[in-house]
Amino acid sequence: MRLLSDIAGKVNAVRARQIAFFALLCGTILTPLSAEAATRAMRPTDVTMVMELDSPIRPGEYAWDESGAPVGGGVRVVVDLSAQKLYVYRGGVEIGRTFILYGVDDRPTPLGTFPILQKDADHRSSTYGDAPMPYTLRLTWDGVSIHGSDIDPQYGTHGCIGVPVAFAKLLFAAAHLGDSVLVTRDWMPAIYAPTHLAALESNAGDIATGS
Fold it and tell me: Which residues are catalytic?
């Protein structure tokens, strides 16, 4: 794990506010958000620790490590469509990361901030031929959810966010109804872009190793 000191605060605060505002706007249009749910939406300045991985996450892979996070409590999820990654945080500490599939063409995955509305470990699609969608976390009542899937980057979804089934099971267990999911683009590139990660690893003065 890597502990972020002042780096997160230096990640373009103006851009972070613009993303949060746009996410809240889109979320209000697509699915009603309570003031409490909007407040819980993840912001770059909320992140205090990220996972240190030996190599970038590839299709079908995931990382999960709760050792540095507070025990219990809800999670906050960030889906970065540009990077095709999903990040899970508890108490500001990243505990999960994976490669995703998302909606393309005429059924894009909507941007915005969404509360988890429903959990269904054995969900099957009523629209797409009874297709299994294990460990579903419903984000909208018109069919957008996070669920387990075979992850082939040559394919897209009909708006849902597909993650490896094993990862979906872990996320399903960790998430609570009402936990927020932010769907955005270019999430914290100064932290998560591979070139920046390499630079951070060579500069021990900027970040300290978490225990």
Answer: 147, 160
